[in-house]
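Lab meeting minutes (informal)
Scribe: AK
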Amino acid sequence: MKKIFFILLSLFIISCSSKFNLVPGYKNNKSPNNCKRINWFPKFESEKMINEKGFWFIKALKGYQQTTEYTCGPAALLALSKFYGLTGIEENKETEMRISREVGTRSMDILKQGGKPGTKPDEMVNWLKKYGFNVKIEFEDKADGSALKKLEENIKKGIPTIVEWAYLTGHWVVVVGYDNRGNDDPWDDVLIFADSYDKFDDYQDGYSFVNANSFYWLWFDLFYFDKITWRTTITAIPKLKP
Protein backbone atom coordinates (compact mmCIF):
# COMPACT_ATOMS: atom_id res chain seq x y z
CA MET A 1 0.00 0.00 0.00
CA LYS A 2 2.84 2.40 0.90
CA LYS A 3 4.53 1.69 -2.45
CA ILE A 4 1.31 2.46 -4.35
CA PHE A 5 0.90 5.68 -2.38
CA PHE A 6 4.37 6.95 -3.26
CA ILE A 7 3.89 6.00 -6.93
CA LEU A 8 0.69 8.06 -7.06
CA LEU A 9 2.37 10.92 -5.22
CA SER A 10 5.29 10.86 -7.66
CA LEU A 11 2.93 10.98 -10.62
CA PHE A 12 1.23 14.01 -9.13
CA ILE A 13 4.55 15.78 -8.63
CA ILE A 14 5.51 15.06 -12.22
CA SER A 15 2.27 16.70 -13.29
CA CYS A 16 3.43 19.84 -11.46
CA SER A 17 6.81 19.95 -13.13
CA SER A 18 7.90 22.62 -15.57
CA LYS A 19 7.07 20.33 -18.47
CA PHE A 20 3.42 20.51 -17.47
CA ASN A 21 3.19 24.01 -16.05
CA LEU A 22 0.01 24.54 -14.07
CA VAL A 23 -0.20 28.14 -15.23
CA PRO A 24 0.28 28.34 -19.02
CA GLY A 25 2.18 31.43 -20.06
CA TYR A 26 3.13 32.25 -16.48
CA LYS A 27 6.79 32.85 -17.27
CA ASN A 28 5.84 35.52 -19.79
CA ASN A 29 3.30 37.34 -17.64
CA LYS A 30 3.66 39.35 -14.46
CA SER A 31 0.46 37.86 -13.11
CA PRO A 32 -1.40 34.61 -13.82
CA ASN A 33 -4.59 36.67 -13.95
CA ASN A 34 -4.89 37.13 -17.70
CA CYS A 35 -8.60 37.87 -17.88
CA LYS A 36 -10.64 41.01 -17.32
CA ARG A 37 -12.84 39.60 -14.59
CA ILE A 38 -12.61 40.70 -10.97
CA ASN A 39 -9.61 39.73 -8.90
CA TRP A 40 -10.58 36.79 -6.75
CA PHE A 41 -7.57 37.20 -4.47
CA PRO A 42 -7.12 40.23 -2.20
CA LYS A 43 -3.78 41.98 -2.34
CA PHE A 44 -1.60 41.88 0.77
CA GLU A 45 -0.82 45.49 1.68
CA SER A 46 1.34 45.63 4.78
CA GLU A 47 1.27 49.43 4.92
CA LYS A 48 -2.45 49.36 5.69
CA MET A 49 -1.98 46.73 8.39
CA ILE A 50 1.15 47.89 10.17
CA ASN A 51 -0.67 49.77 12.94
CA GLU A 52 -3.31 47.13 13.52
CA LYS A 53 -3.33 45.44 16.93
CA GLY A 54 -1.94 41.92 16.81
CA PHE A 55 -0.20 42.30 13.42
CA TRP A 56 3.54 41.68 13.08
CA PHE A 57 5.46 41.72 9.81
CA ILE A 58 9.12 41.48 8.77
CA LYS A 59 9.01 43.85 5.81
CA ALA A 60 12.63 43.50 4.69
CA LEU A 61 12.25 39.85 3.65
CA LYS A 62 10.45 39.00 0.43
CA GLY A 63 10.20 35.70 -1.40
CA TYR A 64 12.79 35.23 -4.15
CA GLN A 65 11.01 33.46 -7.04
CA GLN A 66 12.45 30.02 -7.73
CA THR A 67 13.32 29.24 -11.35
CA THR A 68 12.73 25.47 -11.20
CA GLU A 69 9.99 23.25 -9.84
CA TYR A 70 12.24 21.72 -7.17
CA THR A 71 14.30 24.55 -5.64
CA CYS A 72 11.88 25.98 -3.08
CA GLY A 73 14.32 24.93 -0.34
CA PRO A 74 17.33 26.75 -1.83
CA ALA A 75 15.09 29.74 -2.62
CA ALA A 76 14.02 29.94 1.03
CA LEU A 77 17.68 29.76 2.11
CA LEU A 78 18.57 32.47 -0.41
CA ALA A 79 15.83 34.81 0.85
CA LEU A 80 16.76 34.28 4.50
CA SER A 81 20.50 34.71 3.83
CA LYS A 82 19.89 37.88 1.83
CA PHE A 83 17.84 39.27 4.70
CA TYR A 84 20.71 38.70 7.12
CA GLY A 85 23.31 40.11 4.72
CA LEU A 86 25.26 36.91 4.07
CA THR A 87 28.23 37.59 1.78
CA GLY A 88 27.93 36.33 -1.80
CA ILE A 89 24.15 36.09 -1.82
CA GLU A 90 22.43 37.71 -4.78
CA GLU A 91 18.82 37.33 -5.87
CA ASN A 92 19.46 35.53 -9.14
CA LYS A 93 19.39 32.08 -10.67
CA GLU A 94 23.14 31.65 -10.37
CA THR A 95 22.99 31.96 -6.58
CA GLU A 96 19.85 29.83 -6.39
CA MET A 97 21.46 26.95 -8.29
CA ARG A 98 24.74 27.28 -6.39
CA ILE A 99 22.86 26.87 -3.13
CA SER A 100 20.96 23.96 -4.69
CA ARG A 101 24.23 22.17 -5.46
CA GLU A 102 25.70 22.90 -2.05
CA VAL A 103 22.61 21.71 -0.23
CA GLY A 104 22.23 18.58 -2.34
CA THR A 105 18.80 19.35 -3.76
CA ARG A 106 17.56 16.70 -6.19
CA SER A 107 15.90 17.64 -9.48
CA MET A 108 12.68 16.19 -10.89
CA ASP A 109 14.78 13.81 -13.01
CA ILE A 110 15.46 11.66 -9.97
CA LEU A 111 11.87 10.41 -10.12
CA LYS A 112 12.91 8.28 -13.08
CA GLN A 113 15.26 6.38 -10.76
CA GLY A 114 12.65 6.09 -8.03
CA GLY A 115 14.18 8.90 -5.97
CA LYS A 116 12.59 11.90 -4.30
CA PRO A 117 13.15 15.45 -5.61
CA GLY A 118 13.63 18.52 -3.48
CA THR A 119 15.50 19.24 -0.26
CA LYS A 120 15.41 17.39 3.05
CA PRO A 121 15.12 19.21 6.40
CA ASP A 122 18.54 18.02 7.59
CA GLU A 123 20.11 19.30 4.36
CA MET A 124 18.60 22.73 5.00
CA VAL A 125 19.96 22.71 8.55
CA ASN A 126 23.45 21.57 7.52
CA TRP A 127 23.76 24.33 4.92
CA LEU A 128 22.74 27.00 7.42
CA LYS A 129 25.24 25.71 9.98
CA LYS A 130 27.98 25.66 7.34
CA TYR A 131 27.37 29.35 6.68
CA GLY A 132 27.55 30.43 10.29
CA PHE A 133 23.97 30.27 11.53
CA ASN A 134 22.83 29.10 14.92
CA VAL A 135 20.11 26.66 13.91
CA LYS A 136 17.31 24.98 15.79
CA ILE A 137 15.03 22.46 14.07
CA GLU A 138 11.85 21.43 15.85
CA PHE A 139 8.94 19.09 15.20
CA GLU A 140 5.54 19.11 16.87
CA ASP A 141 3.12 16.19 16.72
CA LYS A 142 1.07 16.87 19.85
CA ALA A 143 -1.55 18.89 17.95
CA ASP A 144 -1.66 21.35 20.85
CA GLY A 145 -0.96 24.48 18.81
CA SER A 146 2.48 25.00 20.36
CA ALA A 147 4.26 25.14 16.98
CA LEU A 148 1.88 27.87 15.86
CA LYS A 149 2.57 29.80 19.05
CA LYS A 150 6.30 29.43 18.37
CA LEU A 151 5.86 31.04 14.95
CA GLU A 152 3.96 33.94 16.47
CA GLU A 153 6.67 34.47 19.10
CA ASN A 154 9.44 34.41 16.48
CA ILE A 155 7.72 36.94 14.25
CA LYS A 156 7.09 39.24 17.22
CA LYS A 157 10.85 39.17 17.81
CA GLY A 158 11.60 39.87 14.14
CA ILE A 159 12.92 36.35 13.50
CA PRO A 160 11.87 34.91 10.11
CA THR A 161 11.24 31.18 10.35
CA ILE A 162 11.51 28.45 7.71
CA VAL A 163 8.72 25.87 7.55
CA GLU A 164 7.78 23.03 5.24
CA TRP A 165 4.18 22.06 4.59
CA ALA A 166 2.21 19.75 2.31
CA TYR A 167 1.18 22.47 -0.15
CA LEU A 168 2.18 21.40 -3.69
CA THR A 169 3.04 17.99 -2.15
CA GLY A 170 5.82 19.64 -0.15
CA HIS A 171 6.92 23.26 -0.11
CA TRP A 172 9.47 25.32 1.83
CA VAL A 173 8.53 28.91 2.71
CA VAL A 174 9.73 31.56 5.16
CA VAL A 175 7.18 32.83 7.66
CA VAL A 176 7.52 36.63 7.80
CA GLY A 177 4.19 37.80 9.18
CA TYR A 178 1.56 36.92 11.74
CA ASP A 179 -1.85 38.48 12.33
CA ASN A 180 -3.94 37.37 15.31
CA ARG A 181 -6.70 39.63 14.00
CA GLY A 182 -7.24 41.18 17.40
CA ASN A 183 -8.86 38.20 19.09
CA ASP A 184 -7.93 35.21 21.23
CA ASP A 185 -8.92 32.42 18.84
CA PRO A 186 -5.71 31.14 17.16
CA TRP A 187 -7.70 29.44 14.41
CA ASP A 188 -8.72 32.85 13.11
CA ASP A 189 -5.07 33.90 12.77
CA VAL A 190 -3.34 34.50 9.44
CA LEU A 191 0.25 33.67 8.45
CA ILE A 192 2.18 35.61 5.79
CA PHE A 193 4.87 33.77 3.84
CA ALA A 194 7.83 34.93 1.80
CA ASP A 195 6.89 32.46 -0.90
CA SER A 196 9.19 31.42 -3.74
CA TYR A 197 6.27 29.93 -5.70
CA ASP A 198 3.96 32.93 -5.76
CA LYS A 199 1.94 31.91 -8.81
CA PHE A 200 -1.61 31.37 -7.71
CA ASP A 201 -2.94 34.74 -6.69
CA ASP A 202 -3.37 37.88 -8.77
CA TYR A 203 -0.25 39.64 -7.50
CA GLN A 204 3.25 38.26 -8.03
CA ASP A 205 4.74 40.16 -5.11
CA GLY A 206 6.66 37.36 -3.38
CA TYR A 207 4.09 36.93 -0.62
CA SER A 208 1.29 34.49 0.08
CA PHE A 209 -0.94 34.14 3.11
CA VAL A 210 -3.06 31.43 4.68
CA ASN A 211 -5.48 30.87 7.52
CA ALA A 212 -3.64 29.42 10.53
CA ASN A 213 -6.09 26.54 10.97
CA SER A 214 -5.77 25.45 7.34
CA PHE A 215 -1.99 25.71 7.50
CA TYR A 216 -1.67 23.89 10.82
CA TRP A 217 -3.30 20.70 9.52
CA LEU A 218 -1.33 20.79 6.27
CA TRP A 219 1.92 21.43 8.09
CA PHE A 220 3.54 18.02 7.66
CA ASP A 221 6.00 16.06 5.55
CA LEU A 222 5.03 12.66 4.16
CA PHE A 223 7.77 12.42 1.57
CA TYR A 224 11.18 11.98 3.16
CA PHE A 225 10.41 9.93 6.23
CA ASP A 226 8.98 6.48 7.00
CA LYS A 227 5.99 8.12 8.64
CA ILE A 228 4.28 11.50 8.55
CA THR A 229 6.47 14.11 10.24
CA TRP A 230 4.47 16.95 11.71
CA ARG A 231 5.28 20.65 11.76
CA THR A 232 8.92 21.11 10.83
CA THR A 233 10.21 24.49 12.02
CA ILE A 234 13.73 25.80 11.33
CA THR A 235 14.85 28.86 13.28
CA ALA A 236 18.20 30.22 12.08
CA ILE A 237 20.06 33.31 13.27
CA PRO A 238 23.63 34.27 12.27
CA LYS A 239 26.19 33.71 15.02
CA LEU A 240 27.61 37.15 14.27
CA LYS A 241 24.58 39.12 13.16
CA PRO A 242 25.71 42.04 10.95
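Next up, CB showed the second protein from the same session:
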Amino acid sequence: MKYLLSLVLFCNFIVANEMNRIDMVFDNEPRHYLVFKPDNDSKPKNLVIGIHGYTGSATGFEKETTGGFNESAKKYNFIAVYPQGLYFYEDQYFGRFMRKNYVSSWNDLTASKTKTPTGETCAVDAVPYPKYSNCRGTDAGRCAWSSCGNDIGFLKKIIDDVKNNYDVENIYVLGVSNGGKIAHALACEFPKLLTGVMNVIGSPALGLACKPKGPINYIVYGGLKDDTVPPIDIVSWDKYFYTPIDTIANDWMSSFNCKEMKTFLYDEYDSIKETVYSSCNDGVKVTSILNMDRGHTYPGVNDDNSGYCKTNIQDEILINECRSNINIWGNDFLLERLLN
Protein backbone atom coordinates (compact mmCIF):
# COMPACT_ATOMS: atom_id res chain seq x y z
CA MET A 1 0.00 0.00 0.00
CA LYS A 2 2.85 2.39 0.87
CA TYR A 3 4.51 1.54 -2.43
CA LEU A 4 1.34 2.34 -4.38
CA LEU A 5 0.91 5.64 -2.53
CA SER A 6 4.52 6.58 -3.23
CA LEU A 7 4.07 5.70 -6.90
CA VAL A 8 0.94 7.89 -7.19
CA LEU A 9 2.69 10.81 -5.49
CA PHE A 10 5.74 10.38 -7.72
CA CYS A 11 3.59 10.34 -10.88
CA ASN A 12 1.73 13.44 -9.69
CA PHE A 13 5.08 15.14 -9.05
CA ILE A 14 6.14 14.39 -12.63
CA VAL A 15 2.86 15.76 -14.04
CA ALA A 16 3.22 18.93 -11.96
CA ASN A 17 6.82 19.48 -13.07
CA GLU A 18 5.87 19.02 -16.72
CA MET A 19 3.41 21.92 -16.57
CA ASN A 20 3.64 25.59 -15.72
CA ARG A 21 0.92 27.22 -13.65
CA ILE A 22 -0.13 30.79 -14.38
CA ASP A 23 -2.12 32.60 -11.69
CA MET A 24 -4.03 35.81 -12.28
CA VAL A 25 -6.89 37.91 -10.99
CA PHE A 26 -9.78 38.17 -13.42
CA ASP A 27 -12.99 40.04 -12.57
CA ASN A 28 -11.78 40.29 -8.96
CA GLU A 29 -11.51 36.48 -8.69
CA PRO A 30 -8.29 34.44 -8.33
CA ARG A 31 -8.01 32.29 -11.47
CA HIS A 32 -5.34 30.08 -13.00
CA TYR A 33 -4.48 27.82 -15.89
CA LEU A 34 -1.77 25.28 -16.73
CA VAL A 35 0.50 25.15 -19.76
CA PHE A 36 2.34 22.14 -21.18
CA LYS A 37 4.89 22.57 -23.97
CA PRO A 38 6.50 19.49 -25.53
CA ASP A 39 10.24 19.31 -24.93
CA ASN A 40 11.54 18.89 -28.46
CA ASP A 41 13.48 20.78 -31.10
CA SER A 42 10.46 21.50 -33.27
CA LYS A 43 8.51 24.56 -32.18
CA PRO A 44 4.78 23.75 -31.88
CA LYS A 45 2.57 25.86 -34.13
CA ASN A 46 -0.72 24.57 -32.72
CA LEU A 47 -2.37 25.35 -29.39
CA VAL A 48 -5.06 23.05 -27.95
CA ILE A 49 -7.11 24.26 -24.99
CA GLY A 50 -8.54 21.36 -22.98
CA ILE A 51 -11.51 22.32 -20.79
CA HIS A 52 -12.71 20.15 -17.91
CA GLY A 53 -16.31 19.43 -17.00
CA TYR A 54 -18.59 20.18 -14.04
CA THR A 55 -16.84 19.50 -10.69
CA GLY A 56 -13.66 18.65 -12.58
CA SER A 57 -10.24 20.30 -12.52
CA ALA A 58 -7.49 21.30 -14.94
CA THR A 59 -5.19 18.48 -13.84
CA GLY A 60 -8.11 16.07 -13.64
CA PHE A 61 -8.80 16.71 -17.32
CA GLU A 62 -5.20 15.99 -18.27
CA LYS A 63 -4.55 12.95 -16.09
CA GLU A 64 -7.88 11.13 -15.62
CA THR A 65 -10.55 12.42 -18.02
CA THR A 66 -8.38 12.04 -21.12
CA GLY A 67 -5.94 9.47 -19.74
CA GLY A 68 -2.84 11.62 -20.27
CA PHE A 69 -3.43 14.51 -22.68
CA ASN A 70 0.18 15.68 -22.36
CA GLU A 71 1.29 12.52 -24.13
CA SER A 72 -0.95 13.50 -27.03
CA ALA A 73 0.61 16.98 -27.02
CA LYS A 74 4.01 15.32 -27.43
CA LYS A 75 2.77 12.98 -30.16
CA TYR A 76 1.02 15.68 -32.21
CA ASN A 77 3.44 18.47 -31.22
CA PHE A 78 1.06 21.07 -29.81
CA ILE A 79 1.04 23.31 -26.77
CA ALA A 80 -1.67 22.21 -24.34
CA VAL A 81 -3.44 24.65 -22.04
CA TYR A 82 -5.74 23.57 -19.21
CA PRO A 83 -7.89 26.33 -17.66
CA GLN A 84 -9.38 25.91 -14.19
CA GLY A 85 -13.06 26.67 -13.76
CA LEU A 86 -14.26 28.93 -10.96
CA TYR A 87 -14.96 26.82 -7.89
CA PHE A 88 -16.35 26.94 -4.36
CA TYR A 89 -17.22 24.51 -1.57
CA GLU A 90 -20.75 23.63 -0.57
CA ASP A 91 -21.25 22.61 3.06
CA GLN A 92 -22.89 19.19 3.21
CA TYR A 93 -24.14 17.96 6.58
CA PHE A 94 -24.48 14.32 7.62
CA GLY A 95 -25.93 14.45 11.12
CA ARG A 96 -23.29 16.18 13.26
CA PHE A 97 -20.66 15.92 10.55
CA MET A 98 -19.99 18.43 7.80
CA ARG A 99 -18.16 17.86 4.52
CA LYS A 100 -16.86 20.42 2.03
CA ASN A 101 -18.26 19.53 -1.40
CA TYR A 102 -16.12 20.88 -4.26
CA VAL A 103 -18.08 22.52 -7.11
CA SER A 104 -16.50 23.86 -10.31
CA SER A 105 -18.05 24.90 -13.61
CA TRP A 106 -18.03 27.13 -16.68
CA ASN A 107 -20.61 29.72 -17.64
CA ASP A 108 -21.42 28.91 -21.26
CA LEU A 109 -24.43 31.29 -21.08
CA THR A 110 -26.91 28.38 -21.12
CA ALA A 111 -26.18 26.44 -17.91
CA SER A 112 -26.53 29.71 -15.99
CA LYS A 113 -30.06 30.32 -17.28
CA THR A 114 -33.58 29.13 -16.55
CA LYS A 115 -35.73 31.01 -19.07
CA THR A 116 -35.60 30.27 -22.80
CA PRO A 117 -37.67 31.73 -25.67
CA THR A 118 -39.94 28.67 -25.49
CA GLY A 119 -39.92 27.67 -21.82
CA GLU A 120 -37.34 26.72 -19.20
CA THR A 121 -34.09 24.74 -19.17
CA CYS A 122 -35.32 22.20 -16.62
CA ALA A 123 -38.51 20.48 -15.44
CA VAL A 124 -40.51 21.60 -12.41
CA ASP A 125 -39.20 18.60 -10.44
CA ALA A 126 -35.59 18.83 -11.65
CA VAL A 127 -32.77 17.96 -9.26
CA PRO A 128 -31.47 21.20 -7.64
CA TYR A 129 -27.73 21.96 -7.72
CA PRO A 130 -25.53 24.23 -5.57
CA LYS A 131 -25.73 27.91 -6.52
CA TYR A 132 -22.78 30.21 -7.12
CA SER A 133 -22.74 33.45 -5.17
CA ASN A 134 -22.06 35.38 -8.39
CA CYS A 135 -25.53 34.35 -9.63
CA ARG A 136 -27.25 36.45 -6.96
CA GLY A 137 -29.04 39.41 -8.45
CA THR A 138 -29.01 37.91 -11.95
CA ASP A 139 -31.74 36.24 -14.00
CA ALA A 140 -30.18 32.80 -13.43
CA GLY A 141 -33.25 31.30 -11.77
CA ARG A 142 -33.87 27.89 -10.26
CA CYS A 143 -32.47 25.80 -13.15
CA ALA A 144 -29.03 27.45 -13.16
CA TRP A 145 -26.21 25.17 -12.01
CA SER A 146 -23.07 26.86 -13.39
CA SER A 147 -21.16 29.98 -12.45
CA CYS A 148 -22.63 33.25 -13.68
CA GLY A 149 -19.18 34.82 -14.14
CA ASN A 150 -17.51 35.94 -17.35
CA ASP A 151 -15.79 32.67 -18.24
CA ILE A 152 -15.80 33.45 -21.96
CA GLY A 153 -13.80 36.58 -21.17
CA PHE A 154 -11.45 34.58 -18.92
CA LEU A 155 -10.74 32.05 -21.67
CA LYS A 156 -10.21 34.85 -24.19
CA LYS A 157 -7.67 36.37 -21.78
CA ILE A 158 -5.84 33.03 -21.59
CA ILE A 159 -5.71 32.80 -25.39
CA ASP A 160 -4.34 36.34 -25.65
CA ASP A 161 -1.68 35.63 -23.01
CA VAL A 162 -0.55 32.38 -24.65
CA LYS A 163 -0.38 34.05 -28.08
CA ASN A 164 1.85 36.75 -26.60
CA ASN A 165 4.22 34.15 -25.14
CA TYR A 166 4.27 31.49 -27.85
CA ASP A 167 4.43 31.67 -31.63
CA VAL A 168 1.25 29.72 -32.40
CA GLU A 169 -0.59 29.77 -35.72
CA ASN A 170 -3.67 27.66 -35.02
CA ILE A 171 -5.84 27.59 -31.90
CA TYR A 172 -8.15 24.69 -31.13
CA VAL A 173 -10.55 24.08 -28.25
CA LEU A 174 -11.59 20.67 -26.92
CA GLY A 175 -14.09 20.71 -24.07
CA VAL A 176 -15.77 17.87 -22.18
CA SER A 177 -19.30 17.99 -20.70
CA ASN A 178 -19.72 21.48 -19.19
CA GLY A 179 -16.36 22.23 -20.84
CA GLY A 180 -17.90 21.15 -24.14
CA LYS A 181 -20.72 23.62 -23.61
CA ILE A 182 -18.35 26.54 -23.27
CA ALA A 183 -16.28 25.24 -26.19
CA HIS A 184 -19.48 25.54 -28.23
CA ALA A 185 -19.95 29.11 -26.95
CA LEU A 186 -16.36 30.01 -27.86
CA ALA A 187 -16.90 28.70 -31.40
CA CYS A 188 -19.88 31.03 -31.76
CA GLU A 189 -18.11 34.00 -30.21
CA PHE A 190 -14.59 33.84 -31.71
CA PRO A 191 -14.65 32.21 -35.17
CA LYS A 192 -11.87 34.50 -36.42
CA LEU A 193 -9.63 33.62 -33.49
CA LEU A 194 -10.12 29.84 -33.42
CA THR A 195 -9.27 27.28 -36.11
CA GLY A 196 -11.53 24.53 -34.82
CA VAL A 197 -13.63 23.46 -31.85
CA MET A 198 -14.66 20.04 -30.53
CA ASN A 199 -17.60 19.70 -28.14
CA VAL A 200 -17.47 16.33 -26.35
CA ILE A 201 -20.68 15.28 -24.52
CA GLY A 202 -21.58 18.92 -23.89
CA SER A 203 -24.78 19.88 -25.70
CA PRO A 204 -26.04 23.35 -24.66
CA ALA A 205 -29.35 23.82 -22.86
CA LEU A 206 -32.38 23.33 -25.10
CA GLY A 207 -33.53 26.56 -26.69
CA LEU A 208 -30.33 28.48 -25.95
CA ALA A 209 -27.70 26.94 -28.25
CA CYS A 210 -25.87 29.72 -30.09
CA LYS A 211 -25.10 29.71 -33.80
CA PRO A 212 -21.77 30.72 -35.35
CA LYS A 213 -21.02 34.36 -36.13
CA GLY A 214 -18.47 33.37 -38.77
CA PRO A 215 -16.72 30.42 -40.43
CA ILE A 216 -15.12 27.86 -38.11
CA ASN A 217 -14.68 24.07 -38.17
CA TYR A 218 -16.89 22.40 -35.59
CA ILE A 219 -17.16 18.84 -34.23
CA VAL A 220 -19.83 17.61 -31.82
CA TYR A 221 -19.47 14.21 -30.11
CA GLY A 222 -22.12 12.38 -28.08
CA GLY A 223 -22.59 9.02 -26.37
CA LEU A 224 -25.85 7.26 -27.20
CA LYS A 225 -26.14 5.85 -23.65
CA ASP A 226 -25.56 9.26 -22.05
CA ASP A 227 -28.40 10.15 -19.68
CA THR A 228 -26.54 13.13 -18.13
CA VAL A 229 -26.32 15.21 -21.31
CA PRO A 230 -28.35 13.07 -23.74
CA PRO A 231 -27.39 13.50 -27.41
CA ILE A 232 -30.84 12.55 -28.71
CA ASP A 233 -33.48 12.16 -25.98
CA ILE A 234 -33.32 15.82 -24.77
CA VAL A 235 -34.31 15.08 -21.12
CA SER A 236 -31.51 14.05 -18.73
CA TRP A 237 -31.85 11.78 -15.69
CA ASP A 238 -31.98 14.87 -13.45
CA LYS A 239 -34.64 16.43 -15.70
CA TYR A 240 -32.67 19.13 -17.48
CA PHE A 241 -33.23 19.74 -21.19
CA TYR A 242 -30.42 19.63 -23.78
CA THR A 243 -30.10 20.30 -27.51
CA PRO A 244 -29.86 17.12 -29.65
CA ILE A 245 -26.54 16.85 -31.48
CA ASP A 246 -28.34 16.45 -34.82
CA THR A 247 -29.98 19.83 -34.24
CA ILE A 248 -26.59 21.38 -33.51
CA ALA A 249 -25.01 19.84 -36.62
CA ASN A 250 -27.93 20.93 -38.79
CA ASP A 251 -27.73 24.50 -37.46
CA TRP A 252 -24.04 24.72 -38.34
CA MET A 253 -24.50 22.94 -41.67
CA SER A 254 -27.25 25.40 -42.64
CA SER A 255 -25.20 28.39 -41.48
CA PHE A 256 -22.41 27.49 -43.91
CA ASN A 257 -24.54 26.05 -46.72
CA CYS A 258 -22.82 22.66 -46.68
CA LYS A 259 -23.60 20.73 -49.87
CA GLU A 260 -22.12 17.28 -49.21
CA MET A 261 -22.75 14.75 -46.44
CA LYS A 262 -20.94 11.46 -45.88
CA THR A 263 -21.50 8.90 -43.14
CA PHE A 264 -18.78 6.59 -41.80
CA LEU A 265 -19.13 3.62 -39.44
CA TYR A 266 -16.32 2.37 -37.18
CA ASP A 267 -16.20 -0.67 -34.91
CA GLU A 268 -12.51 -1.27 -34.11
CA TYR A 269 -12.98 -0.21 -30.48
CA ASP A 270 -16.49 1.17 -30.02
CA SER A 271 -19.35 1.25 -32.51
CA ILE A 272 -19.25 4.81 -33.86
CA LYS A 273 -21.25 6.69 -36.48
CA GLU A 274 -19.59 9.78 -37.94
CA THR A 275 -21.36 12.22 -40.25
CA VAL A 276 -19.19 14.75 -42.09
CA TYR A 277 -20.66 17.82 -43.80
CA SER A 278 -18.35 19.36 -46.41
CA SER A 279 -18.32 21.61 -49.49
CA CYS A 280 -19.40 24.39 -47.13
CA ASN A 281 -18.93 28.13 -47.46
CA ASP A 282 -15.41 29.36 -46.61
CA GLY A 283 -14.06 25.79 -46.56
CA VAL A 284 -15.78 24.97 -43.26
CA LYS A 285 -16.23 21.34 -42.20
CA VAL A 286 -18.89 20.25 -39.70
CA THR A 287 -18.76 16.81 -38.07
CA SER A 288 -21.22 14.93 -35.86
CA ILE A 289 -19.99 11.82 -34.01
CA LEU A 290 -22.25 9.40 -32.12
CA ASN A 291 -20.69 6.62 -30.03
CA MET A 292 -23.27 3.83 -29.77
CA ASP A 293 -21.51 2.06 -26.89
CA ARG A 294 -20.69 4.87 -24.47
CA GLY A 295 -22.51 7.18 -22.11
CA HIS A 296 -21.36 10.39 -20.45
CA THR A 297 -17.66 9.73 -20.77
CA TYR A 298 -14.61 10.66 -22.82
CA PRO A 299 -13.85 8.01 -25.44
CA GLY A 300 -11.11 5.44 -24.96
CA VAL A 301 -10.53 5.61 -21.19
CA ASN A 302 -10.67 2.62 -18.85
CA ASP A 303 -12.27 4.49 -15.94
CA ASP A 304 -15.50 6.22 -16.96
CA ASN A 305 -15.95 8.13 -13.68
CA SER A 306 -12.83 10.26 -13.87
CA GLY A 307 -11.50 13.81 -13.75
CA TYR A 308 -12.86 14.81 -10.32
CA CYS A 309 -9.37 15.04 -8.85
CA LYS A 310 -6.18 17.11 -8.66
CA THR A 311 -2.40 16.73 -8.65
CA ASN A 312 0.02 18.67 -6.48
CA ILE A 313 0.28 21.62 -8.89
CA GLN A 314 -3.31 22.36 -7.75
CA ASP A 315 -2.72 21.30 -4.18
CA GLU A 316 -4.97 23.99 -2.68
CA ILE A 317 -8.08 22.34 -4.16
CA LEU A 318 -9.77 20.06 -1.63
CA ILE A 319 -10.49 16.96 -3.72
CA ASN A 320 -8.90 13.55 -4.14
CA GLU A 321 -5.54 12.96 -5.78
CA CYS A 322 -5.68 11.88 -9.41
CA ARG A 323 -5.00 8.29 -10.36
CA SER A 324 -3.42 7.08 -13.56
CA ASN A 325 -5.94 6.43 -16.32
CA ILE A 326 -5.16 4.81 -19.64
CA ASN A 327 -6.54 5.99 -22.97
CA ILE A 328 -6.08 3.40 -25.69
CA TRP A 329 -7.60 5.18 -28.70
CA GLY A 330 -9.87 8.09 -27.77
CA ASN A 331 -7.36 10.94 -27.87
CA ASP A 332 -6.06 9.84 -31.27
CA PHE A 333 -9.58 9.45 -32.66
CA LEU A 334 -10.62 12.96 -31.59
CA LEU A 335 -7.39 14.84 -32.27
CA GLU A 336 -6.91 13.41 -35.75
CA ARG A 337 -10.25 15.02 -36.60
CA LEU A 338 -9.78 18.26 -34.69
CA LEU A 339 -6.29 19.03 -36.02
CA ASN A 340 -7.00 18.17 -39.67
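CB comment: Residues 26 and 153 are 9 Å apart (CA to CA).
No objections, moving on.
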